Structures are given as structure tokens and as C-alpha cells.
């Protein structure tokens, strides 16, 4: 016996300004972890822990030539961080699909959002305990935190369809991304202050890093309360009945099987996902590897890297808003394609930045900040137009498997290129291929036809 579909609530009661404001606060909450931990601190810090384990007697300024053994496989110290992100993504690729199916059947999606976010925040805060050479614990905590970040964002992104009409989604998504960059920037500014005055406070440099890691987890946990409380009246719906006798797990597997079959009936949705797989892998690899590239290839210290990312954050705040305005005039698809051209030029510029040239590096950071927020925000709103009603979370689980901090083609290519060449410069240059291929595939997506096939309302501009 199948359960009848749960009727969708009146859109007018969900698409309110209050809900749209509460929605954006989750970008503010999780961006602290993405920025402070994922982008700036954890890759260099995990590399330092791994180096301390592989070469405990290494003198300052010397390079570590020894390999670490991970399950019998030799791994270069400099590849530990990108490989860890790769592992987190491979796990996410499977787990997030189940999260999406569960979320579409969950009666209170915001409770699920909060639960996943708080587990991730606990893992992020626990990075405070990383010290000495215990890089293995760091790998575990990164995998858990990144997995929960992706899983919670599956639920979060699906709520965009509930709180914003097709014509409002570019604006709502762009403002939420902008809010995230602002929040991440504010916490990072506080982190920079601690890194600057740690000696006068009587704490070591390592302790300052650990306290900053703790602050990112606490920030994520506390500010998640705003969307969870603000969107508490939104109830789950499903357009696909499932067998009650199958149970939670069996019903979820059945729904996933049906969704995979249905996906073939939405070729433009599938084509968009393929394009996103490539260009977002490029974006995420640049973001997650920027601090590693700056520290290892260009010789910048952690304080300089924090200044760089802080600049990127505040520039990205304005960039996301500007891209939203441009999309309202020329359409989101054209705006994203223009952004991918800019990404290609930015990476090429980064390749030629001389070692120690901090001012030139900051110019590169301004270009990254300008293009970063807009392409990500508009990709989310574009995809939301192609998602069938009632399966938002499931379809966003496919999307999130390739979202921020979960790219695996890019990080794997980055890590392999470093291991083969011993240099981060060719490794960063490899990401250009992802922008080019993704952009070419995106040009083949017919948004109007895809929106019609998904049964959704046509916006004025796409």
C-alpha cells in the first residue's frame, strides 16, 4: 500500500521576506568554517602536523623528503590535505544521495538541517585538539565536518525553492551568498587579530591557530539557530509516494532508484549537473588549495594568507550582489558563463605571481573575490529552476556532491600533479581545464526547455 502524496503548502505562506531573511543566515553560519578552517588554516596546519610525523627532526627551513604510509600507500606530505578533501568527497558522493532522499520525506526539514549542521560544527570545534603530529585525527575530523557541511547544505539549498519564486531566486541566492562572505570575513578579521597579538596575550602561535579552529565551529553552531528557528513552520512534502511497508531505509532506497530513473527524463537538468561537475570542481579546488599554494609555492606566512582571504571575503560580498544585478538584466546563464571566462584568466594570472610578491598576490585575490560569489550563487539559483517539484532535496544532493569543499576530480588532479612534478604551480594551472570544459557543456544547456520539462514556472530571465 502506498502513502498518498503530502500536499504542498501555499507558496504565498512560505515565500515571505521573513523566510528569505532567515534562509540567508545559514550561509552566514557555515561560511565561518568554510573560510577560516577550510580555506585558510586547515590545509597548512594539517601539512605541518604530517611533516612533524614524517620528519620529526627536521630543521626549520628544510623540506621533508620522506613519504607517509597510509594503509601501505606512500603519500607525499604536501599531498595529505588535498587527498583528505578527495576522500571526504568520495564518501559524500554516496551519503548525500541518501540524505537528499530522507530530507524530501522528512516532516520537518529544518530540524534535519540543524542536526546535520551541529554534528559538523562539533567536528569543526574539535579541531582545537589537533596538536603535535596527530594528523590522522585531523583527517577524520575534516571528513566528518565536510560531510555534514555538504549534507546540511543539501537540505538548505532545497529550501530556496520553498522561500523564493522563480523570479526572486537569483536575488535571494545572491544575497545569501553575500551574507555568507560577510560573516566569514568578520570572523576571519577576528582570527587575524588573534594571530597578530598572540604573543602579547601569552599564547603560542599553534594555540592561536587551534583557538581559531574552535571559533569557526562555535560560530557555525550558534548562528545555525537563526534559520532553524526562522524556518520552523516549513513542513516537508513529497511528490512521490513510497511503500510504507518498505520502512525508512527501504523506502529511501526505492525513492533513490526511481529518481535515478527519472533523471534520464530531464536531459537538460542532467547536462547542467555535468557542466557543474567540471566548473565547480575548478572553483572548489582553487578555494581549498589557495592557502596551500600561497604558503608552499609563494612563501607567504599564515597572517598574510588570512589577510588575502579576508580581502577575498569582503570583495566577494560586493561581487555576489553585483552578479545578482547583472543576472537580472542579461540572465543568470550568460552571467555564469562570463564568470567562467574570468576564472580562467584569474588562474592564469595566479600561475605567474612571483614568489614573495604579496602586493601582486593581493591583486589576484581581488579578481578572485569579484568572480567567486557570483558564479556560485547564480549556479544554485539556475539549478533550482531545473529541479522537479517535490524532489528538491534529492536533486540538490546530486548538486551538493560537487559543491563547496567536496570537489574530487579537481583536488585529485591537484594532488597528483604536485606529487608528479614537486611543484604547486603546474598543479594550480591544471584547474583551467575544468573551467573550459564546464563552460562548453553549459552552453549546451537549454534552460527554457529544461524548466518546461521539469514542470516549473518560467522566470522572466534565465
From TrEMBL:
Per UniProt, what is one GO molecular function of this protein? transmembrane transporter activity
GO CC, one annotated term: plasma membrane
Topology versus the membrane, per the UniProt entry? Multi-pass membrane protein
Keywords noted in UniProt: Membrane, Transmembrane, Transmembrane helix, Transport
Q: Where in the cell is it found?
A: Cell membrane
The entry's protein name is MFS transporter
Q: What is its main location?
A: membrane
Please list every transmembrane segment annotated in the UniProt record, as residue ranges: 80-103, 110-129, 135-156, 176-197, 209-231, 270-293, 305-328, 335-352, 424-443
Name the species this protein comes from.
Answer: Serinicoccus chungangensis
Indicate the segments forming the Major facilitator superfamily (MFS) profile domain, all copies.
Answer: 268-462
- The residue stretches assigned to a coiled coil in this entry are none
Amino acid at each position: 500500500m502506498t502513502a498518498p502524496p503530502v500536499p504542498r503548502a501555499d507558496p504565498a505562506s512560505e515565500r515571505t521576506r521573513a523566510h528569505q531573511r532567515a534562509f540567508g543566515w545559514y550561509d552566514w553560519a557555515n561560511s565561518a568554517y568554510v573560510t577560516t578552517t577550510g580555506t585558510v588554516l586547515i590545509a597548512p596546519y594539517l601539512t605541518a602536523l604530517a611533516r612533524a610525523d614524517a620528519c620529526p627532526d627536521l630543521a626549520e627551513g628544510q623540506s621533508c623528503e620522506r613519504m607517509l604510509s597510509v594503509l601501505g600507500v606512500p603519500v607525499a606530505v604536501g599531498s595529505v590535505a588535498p587527498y583528505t578533501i578527495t576522500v571526504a568527497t568520495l564518501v559524500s558522493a554516496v551519503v548525500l544521495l541518501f540524505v537528499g532522499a530522507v530530507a524530501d520525506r522528512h516532516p520537518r526539514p529544518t530540524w534535519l538541517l540543524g542536526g546535520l549542521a551541529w554534528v559538523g560544527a562539533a567536528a569543526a570545534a574539535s579541531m582545537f585538539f589537533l596538536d603535535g603530529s596527530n594528523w590522522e585525527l585531523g583527517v577524520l575530523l575534516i571528513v566528518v565536518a565536510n560531510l555534514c557541511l555538504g549534507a546540511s547544505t543539501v537540505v538548505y539549498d532545497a529550501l530556496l525553492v520553498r522561500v523564493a519564486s522563480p523570479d526572486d531566486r537569483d536575488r535571494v541566492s545572491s544575497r545569501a551568498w553575500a551574507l555568507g562572505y560577510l560573516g566569514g570575513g568578520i570572523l576571519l578579521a577576528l582570527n587575524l587579530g588573534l594571530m597578530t597579538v598572540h604573543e602579547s596575550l601569552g599564547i603560542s602561535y599553534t594555540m592561536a591557530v587551534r583557538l581559531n579552529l574552535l571559533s569557526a565551529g562555535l560560530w557555525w553552531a550558534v548562528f545555525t539557530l537563526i534559520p532553524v528557528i526562522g524556518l520552523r513552520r516549513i513542513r516537508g512534502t513529497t511528490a512521490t509516494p513510497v511503500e510504507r511497508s518498505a520502512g525508512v531505509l527501504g523506502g529511501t532506497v526505492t525513492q533513490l532508484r526511481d529518481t535515478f530513473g527519472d533523471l534520464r527524463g530531464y536531459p537538460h537538468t542532467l547536462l547542467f549537473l555535468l557542466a557543474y561537475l567540471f566548473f565547480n570542481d575548478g572553483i572548489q579546488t582553487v578555494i581549498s588549495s589557495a592557502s596551500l599554494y600561497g604558503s608552499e609555492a609563494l612563501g607567504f606566512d599564515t597572517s598574510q594568507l588570512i589577510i588575502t582571504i579576508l580581502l577575498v571575503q569582503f570583495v566577494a560580498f560586493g561581487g555576489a550582489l553585483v552578479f545578482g544585478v547583472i543576472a537580472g538584466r542579461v540572465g543568470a546563464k550568460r552571467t555564469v558563463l562570463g564568470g567562467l571566462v574570468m576564472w580562467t584568466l584569474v588562474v592564469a594570472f595566479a600561475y605567474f605571481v612571483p614568489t614573495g610578491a604579496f602586493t601582486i598576490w593581493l591583486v589576484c585575490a581581488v579578481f578572485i573575490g569579484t568572480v567567486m560569489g557570483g558564479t556560485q550563487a547564480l549556479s544554485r539559483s539556475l539549478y533550482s529552476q531545473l529541479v522537479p517539484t517535490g524532489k528538491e532535496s534529492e536533486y540538490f544532493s546530486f548538486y551538493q556532491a560537487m559543491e563547496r569543499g567536496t570537489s574530487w576530480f579537481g583536488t585529485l588532479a591537484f594532488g597528483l600533479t604536485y606529487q608528479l612534478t614537486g611543484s604547486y604551480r603546474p598543479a594550480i594551472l591544471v584547474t583551467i581545464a575544468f573551467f573550459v570544459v564546464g563552460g562548453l557543456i553549459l552552453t549546451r544547456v537549454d534552460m527554457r526547455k529544461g524548466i518546461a520539462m521539469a514542470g516549473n514556472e518560467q522566470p522572466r530571465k534565465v
